[in-house]
Amino acid sequence: MRRREFITALGGMASATYWPSSVLAQQSSATRRIGVLMSGKAEDKEAKDALAAFIRGLQQLGWTDGRNLRIDLRLGAGDADIIRKHAAELAGLSPDLIVTYGSSAIGQLVQATRTVPILFVLAPDPVGSGFVNSLSRPGGNATGFMAFEYSLSAKWPELLKQITPGARRAAVLWDPAIAAGIGQFATIQSVAPSLGLELDPVNVRNVEQGVAAFAHSGGGGLIVTASGLAVAQRDLIVSIAAQYKLPAVYSFRGFVDAGGLVSYAASSIDQFRLAAGYADRILKGEKPADLPVQAPTKYDLVINLKTAKTLDLAIPPTVLAGASEVIE
Q: What are the structural domains of the chain?
C-alpha cells in the first residue's frame, strides 16, 4: 500500500507498475519503458518531490506515462537486500532505461546489467566507485549526475562552526570502505585546523557506540558525510543526534525533513529535473557512454528551526539569510 501511496502523492503523474514481463510485452511497441529504482522509503518527502520533478521534466519533453511511456517503479526502503532484488528485477525486464540514485542502488544496477542504459542521480564519486571510466567519457552503459565535488565537503565543518562558534570538536560519520567516504573525510581534514576543529572519525557501521563515546567525552557537533549506509540509517542518526543534543550538519536534506538540524547538498529536485533531459536523449538513441557525467548546478541549504529550538541554539541571521528553505 505504501508504494501505491508514494505514486498517488505525485498527483497521478505516474502509475505503480509491478507487472510481470508478459504483461509489459503487451504494451504498444511505440511505448518506451523506464525503470526507476528509488533507494529510500515511500514516505520520504525528498524522494517524492525529486521523482515528481523528473516526471514533469519528461512531460515537458513529450513523454507521458500511459501514452508513450511506462514507468516501472521500485522502492528500496533503505534495505540493501531489497535494493539488490529490485535491481535484478528491473534489469531482467530489459527496459529502455533505468533511473536511480545513491551509491548502493547504482552499484547493484551496474552489476546487474552491462547492456541496459543506466541514468544515475546524486552519485558520490562515480569514477572512484567504478560506475564510469571518466566524467567526460563514461564509456559504459551508465552516466548521469554526481552528488558533489569533494571540495563541497569543506562547507559542512564551516557550517558547523557558523552555527556553533564555540565548537572545538566534531564527530565525522563516514564510510571508510568507499571511495566517496575517503574523499569526503580527506577534504574535511584539510580544513579542520583552520576552523579550530579536532576531528573524531566515526565509522557509519558503528553509529550508536561511536557517537555515544564522542558525546560522553564532551562538547562539539556532528558531521554526517554522504553514503548509502548513512541514508539507510537516517532515522537512527537523527534520533542519536537529538538524544545527545549534538548540533549536526548533514549531506542530504532528507535528514532535515526527518528532524535533523542543517543540511547542505546538491538539490535533488534540480538534478532529477536535469536528468529528464538526459533520459530524453537516451530514449531517442544516444548512448550513456557518450554523455558526460555532470556536476551539480544548484545546492540547497535547509535549516530546521524546530530542531534548533530543542537544542537551545540560535541560528545566526547570516546563515538564515543564505538558506534555501527554513522549516519552522
A: 2-146+268-296 (3.40.50.2300), 150-265+300-327 (3.40.50.2300)
